[in-house]
Predict the structure of DUF1489 family protein.
Amino acid sequence: MPQLHLSKVAFGCRDLDMLRTRISARSEGGELRVPTRMRPKRAAELVGGNLYWIVKHRIIGSNRILAFEDREDARINIVCSSELEAVVPMPRRAHQGWRYLEMDASEAADESGLGELPPRLYGRLSALALV
């Protein structure tokens, strides 16, 4: 059975390096807290899954989801590992907030190095059906 994950747009990020910089700047004690308005109804299933980041209409990296915690301002923190893992880029439409994503970890393992390609180059190679 596939693991349940979340996808979220990394607004304002240009590439994987910029996302890494943002995550390291916002991490504290090996954890990244991502604020959101609503607690996912399937939160218990998401713990142990990943938060996949969308940059320029493709998933490029993920952080392991560790927990969900309530905030004083009635919002929720998605508590993730601060370690960003590059994944094989997968096309995905941009959206607001987060969305559920069901897939096996083997589908997202990046052993090819494609996650490191600049978005523009990946787009061109993809249009030529080379990746």
Observations:
- The domain at 3-127 is CATH 2.30.130 (Archaeosine Trna-guanine Transglycosylase; Chain: A, domain 4).
- Helices lie at 16-26, 43-46, 105-108, 119-127.
- The beta strands are 3-9, 31-36, 50-55, 58-70, 76-81, 85-91, 98-103.
- The longest strand covers residues 58-70.
